[in-house]
Amino acid sequence: MTRSSGAPRSLDRRSVLKWGAAGAFGIGSVAALPAFGTPSLKQRPSSCRVADRSSDKRLRVSNWPLYIDQPEKGSKTRTTMQDFEQRTGIRVTYTEDINDNDEFFAKVKNQLGGCQSTGRDLMVLTGWMAARMIDLGWVQPLDAAKVPNLHKNLLDQYKHVDFDPTRKYSAPWQGGLAGIAYNKKVLPGGVHNVTDLLTRRDLRGRISVLIEMPDTMGLVLLSDGADPSKFNDAEWQRAIEKLRKAREIGQIRAFTGNDYINDLSAGNLKASIAWSGDIAASGDKNLVFVTPEEGAMIWSDNMLVPNMAQHELNAEEWINYYYEPEVAARLAAYNNYICPVKGAKEAMAKVDKSLVDNQLIFPSEKTLKQTHSFMSLAEYKERDYKGDFNDVQGG
Questions:
Q1: Range list of β-strands (E), 240-346
Q2: Residue 167: left if φ>0, alpha if ψ -120 to 50, beta else—which one?
Q3: DSSP designation for 338
Q4: Fewer Cβ within 10 Å of end Cβ, the chain: N or C?
């Protein structure tokens, strides 16, 4: 895939995940989790606001690394952010300081839990963490009248999510699929279901799974016939034991961030649970991403306005801008993840014709019908499940 930034093709927004960097999508490393018992930190968004200062034409955005087109030295091609600033007169302070959802939660927990400013007007977090932030009352509602493009152009599969059914608080930035990837040079026949991935002897010690619990466990649940969007404790226990057994027999080489790409390209790994955007951006023709026979997991990273944001109107203007199909197409051409904006596929014909039919950026209805979301969890339940998952990693 072409990247307008000129950055290495193996890099994208998940490339510097804290956990992944600590090990080798981080081989075997487990990060310390923040305390999740935060009922005393709940807030009422209506009580945690300040007078808007958007008239000073400033906006402070926190996002993941390499998730927006960047200016190239000597290039006359303008980026989407430069065009936003020129059109609106808003000066954007854009910081790539989100490397891991849990790490970021720990960073802002005391401020948001204490109804204090984080110094941010917009932050981008994965669905399950966005759900927690919204549940805790740490996110300001969006004025639907200020973000008409969001409600007009949001793809149907990203509407009506359980943590924000009307998209009152969140707007997808980009999305992606978690499925199976394999190196056809070392595994010509590939692997097409998660049970085979976790049990086939020819794959022993040559696979990796993702350190993101909803993605890995969602696929394992699917492989057992459970619904990741609605499962019970018994189904969870069967799935976690299936993963545990795979770890104990040496099937799994690593729990990783997206640094699995290098090992997969080199043939050190034959296959992995993988993110679609990584494969799309790798530039390696030997790497194949497949939707498992049981289905794939779909996720999104979401723009949120935190409590005490000083430039909420400017944040809404930013959201509305990135839901213009032409702008969304330019962004998708850079970061290679699923574009959540209707009309962007048609607009891509003017940006990069080679990407118009790319299923990893613009998946077909057939592909989308095979996707599943991970259900939002109560805080105590997520703590328990993450404990189980981390225990398997450390085993």
A1: 252-256, 271-275, 287-290, 296-304
A2: left
A3: B
A4: C
